[in-house]
Amino acid sequence: MTVTSIPTLQAGRTVLLGLSRVRYEVKTYFRQGDSAFFSFLFPLVLLTIFSVAFSEQNLGTEDAPLSAAAFYLPGMMAAGLLLSGLQNLAIDIAAEKGDGTLKRLAGTPLPVPSYFIGKIGQVFVTGILQAAMLLVVARVAFQMELPTQPEKWAPFAWVFVLGVSTSAILGIALSGLPRSGKSATAVIIPIALVLQFISGVYLGFSQLPEWLQTVASVFPLKWMAQGMRSVFLPEDFASLEQGGTWDLAGVAIVTAIWLVVGLAVTRMTFRWIRKDS
Amino acid sequence: MTTTDPVVRVRDLHKRYGSFPAFDGVSFDIHRGETFALLGPNGAGKSTTIEILEGYRNRTSGEASVLGVDPGRGGLEWKARLGIVLQSTGESGNVTVREQLTHFAGLYPHSRDVDEVIAAVGLVDKQKTLIRKLSGGQRRRVDVALGIIGRPELLFLDEPTTGFDPEARRQFWQLVEGLKQDGTTILLTTHYLDEAARLGDRAGVITGGRLIDIGGIDEIGGAESRVPIVRWRQDGVERSVRTTELGLVVARVVAEVGEPQGLEIIRPSLEDIYLQLLADHAAGEAADLMENAP
Questions:
Q1: Which of A229, B92, B171, B288 has a 20 to 30 A CA-CA distance from B130?
Q2: Residue A61 belongs to a domain
């Protein structure tokens, strides 16, 4: 459906309605209170648990000690991207398919891209809040030294923006996978969980066997986590990565490829409703 | 499309699920400003017909045109002219009545005033309540409100008053009468025949995937089925006569027995006529089966 086929509807309507959807989606997200809110706070809860549980341990080297909070912060940042985007949207949209929300929208003149803008906007808002809370807790509760140089925050910004976008689009693409709204959590959470375990979120990536690292390198989460490590870990830790460097070019390329894959799958598979179901 | 063209035009519509026919060869028109009631038992194909016209389902064969557009290919501009009240909804409802209506009003180019619509569906006291906290009947009113918020030219009402208390139903009838006065064309399905009789201009009866009768709401079923019944008791025995000459019959009874006991004149309601139509159709089907049996 192109804008040219709807001459009497105001131009630029797709974006305006998209922004109106962002407000609507953010409002309803925080009113759910249960599952979505849990995935919102989850990285924060885990960061706290890990930081407290391993508070006596040095997770760096003798020369360059590293607190548990500092060690886990990049992973939790990456987990936040995955949970706010992929997990949240895949489950949310599958549920909206199941409960008739999409059927109702399908009967209105709301353009599909406006709906997506609303969902992605919601992921950006919650993702930014989540990242901000992680930084505050790491700094205030666990006295972690955050980077002060602008050259660290620039990669943080683009890894975050690219990561949130890719994760959100993949969430929309995966929302077609569960066969019903009720099965959505059971289908999506294991996918997200496995990715988190093999991508260096809960387990140190350098401690995984070489072949598993290679498998994880196919997926975007490993690269998002690596991008976050480049921001928050000391320079020396780059030698522990698979190529011995932070490889930010790799981070950008693999994540962007998944963004394109997600867009293509969404374009091919997303329908308001399954006709004749 | 000119103003004399029907708003909805259906010709020889067929729908099959695999080899199972949902309905076969349904044809009807709905004219501008008219309220058309589609009646029939559960599973007769009413909702499938409506959902094809709303663009939710594909037809197997036949022609359909809604506001001059093939509903299988309707774009956003087309949807902006429709109002849809689906048979059932189960959204999470984490918005208030007012928030939901304000948001949906924003989707349409010429939407109605939110306050007016909230008042029209009788939810002024509940406008700041989250939709999930409303009762079933109140949620249904929100569905109706969302259906009319965009000032539709054509409104689909699929069993709109299910779960309404009698007062809410009367209020809804007034709302629909107001919409009719504004010139809205309406396609209504309902199991309440008094509702169909009150609101409908014409009706179609669909059963077993066939349209078995169609006509004005006071013509459907034929003149015969509308002949009133005079009923009274005579010597403890109930007597009844079907007649169009009510006065004469009553006068004759009075001349014969004096003031009759339990005298009643019964005009068949739409419900009586409808049930008779279905019964006649079932009897006809059974007779056909017997004839064709080996």
A1: B171
A2: yes
**Do A109 and B107 make contact, defined as CB atoms within 8 angstroms?**
yes
Read off the tokens for A165.
């976008």
**pLDDT at position A143:** 86
ipTM: 0.88
> Where do we find the tokens 């997303």?
A270
Tens of pLDDT, residues B186-236: 999 999 999 999 999 999 999 988 899 999 988 888 888 889 999 998 888
Look at B117-131, B143-157, B278-292 and tell me which has the smallest mean pLDDT. Answer: B278-292
User: Which residues 147-206 in chain A show a CB within 8 A of chain B?
Assistant: none
Which residue of B lies nearest to A272 if distances are taken between CA atoms? B56
- Predicted pLDDT of residue B186: 97
Residue A10: how many other CB atoms lie within 10 Å: 10
**Would A115 be classed as within a structural domain?**
yes
Say yes or no for a CB contact (<8 Å) between A32 and B80.
no
Domain residue spans of chain B: 8-216, 224-292
Closest residue of chain B to A103, computed from CA coordinates:
B56
State pTM to two decimals.
0.89
pLDDT at B144 over 70: yes
CB contact under 8 A, B86 and A100: yes
For the B8-216 domain, the top CATH level (class) is alpha beta
Does residue A27 sit at the B interface (CB-CB below 8 Å)? yes
User: Can you give the pLDDT at residue A35?
Assistant: 63
Q: Which residue has the higher pLDDT, A63 or B40?
A: B40
Where in the sequence is the domain holding A26, given as residue range(s)? 12-269
Do the Cβ atoms of B76 and A32 come within 8 Å?
no
> Which residue numbers of B have CB closer than 8 Å to A's CBs?
17, 54-58, 75-77, 79-80, 82, 84, 86, 88-92, 94-95, 99, 103-104, 106-109, 130, 146, 150
- A&B contacts, CB < 8 Å: 87
The mean pLDDT of chain B is 90
Give the neighbor-by-neighbor strand order of the sheet with B229-234. B237-242, B229-234, B261-266
pLDDT band at A6 (very low <50, low <70, confident <90, very high): very low
Beta strands in chain B (DSSP E): 8-17, 20-30, 35-39, 61-66, 82-85, 154-158, 185-189, 202-207, 210-216, 229-234, 237-242, 261-266
User: What's the CA gap between A183 and A122, in Å, rounded?
Assistant: 23
